[in-house]
Specification:
globular, nine-stranded mixed β-sheet, D-amino Acid Aminotransferase, Chain A, domain 1, D-amino Acid Aminotransferase, Chain A, domain 2, 2 domains, alpha+beta
């Protein structure tokens, strides 16, 4: 069944400090962010009425905005409250939460000094980024066309909309070839992440994960590292060359949307979801639902 378009749904969206009907939450076609990608966003999940790491998400939105040279006009506390109240207005207890801030239509051109900064929060039911079937057998990845940029060429520490352009292109190409997603390398040729999730690889009982020096150190990534270390699993952050892909026994992705998702294939390499990836996926699921204390 086709999903409803995101501009034609019932409900409420928090927009610039007040709630407006979902269909009325609009921006002008000459909004600066649409033309110059001057926007930052977050993606969080609510489980059983609680948004996991909400404060960290709101704080990161503020940091991302500062990197893009603007200030979010609402405090971290106000954003936290807006996220909770939006979910409540929507009648949701398990959902995806999307805060976003952007430059408006008050000026056009590269210079955006005169623009007003806007902010919004939307919540919707999004059970899983990947289908249950994909998660069970492990998602299929191909190699991405583009690489993650160097930190001296783009604001890689920000969760900025413009950085996801190459992700959309790479994911579309992957889907056209029958894959679920794509593995992106960094500007030096090392493994970075998928188009929207961090990556972990298992070898001889240890977890290997790329050093996040040109892509986001995801909040879910940090949580999984904590869970693994608490279980006595060695976690090795390092530069990983793609030639090593054949030496790992398990691979999985992490992210607020993806949660913990096993990988079954990366191009010519095959993996079987095993005890490490499935165990951490189960532990993460229990933890975010308050059955375990956060790491």
């Amino acid at each position: 069944m086709a999903l409803l378009p995101y501009d034609d749904r019932d409900g409420w969206i928090w927009l610039d400090g007040q709630f407006v009907p979902w269909r009325d939450a609009k921006v002008h076609v000459l909004t600066h962010a649409l033309h110059y990608a001057s926007s930052v966003f977050e993606g969080a999940r609510m489980y059983s009425g609680e948004i996991y790491k909400l404060r960290e998400h709101s704080e990161r939105l503020h940091r991302s905005a500062k990197i893009l040279d603007f200030e979010v006009p609402y405090s971290v506390e106000e954003l936290d409250r807006a996220c909770k109240e939006t979910a409540q207005r929507m009648g949701l207890e398990d959902c995806y939460v999307r805060p976003i801030a952007w430059r408006g239509p008050e000026a056009m051109g590269v210079s955006a000094q005169a623009t007003r900064i806007h902010a919004a929060v939307a919540c919707w039911d999004w059970p899983s980024y990947f289908s249950p079937e994909e998660r069970q057998r492990g998602v299929r990845l191909t190699r991405a066309k583009y690489s993650r940029p160097a930190p001296f060429t783009a604001p890689t520490e920000a969760k900025a909309a413009g950085l996801y352009m190459i992700c959309t292109i790479s994911k579309h190409l992957a889907e056209k070839e029958g894959y679920t997603d794509a593995l992106m390398l960094d500007w030096r040729g090392y493994i970075a992440e998928s188009t929207g999730s961090n990556i972990f690889l298992v070898r001889d009982g240890a977890l290997h994960t790329p050093t996040p020096d040109c892509f986001l150190n995801g909040l879910t990534r940090q949580t999984v590292i904590g869970l693994a270390q608490k279980k006595g699993i060695e976690v090795i952050e390092r530069h990983i060359h793609p030639d090593e892909l054949g030496t790992f026994s398990e691979v999985f992705l992490t992210g607020s949307a993806a949660e913990v998702t096993p990988v079954g294939e990366i191009a010519e390499h095959r993996y079987k979801p095993g005890a490490m990836s499935l165990g951490l996926a189960e532990e993460y699921s229990r933890m975010v639902r308050r059955q375990l204390q956060p790491a």
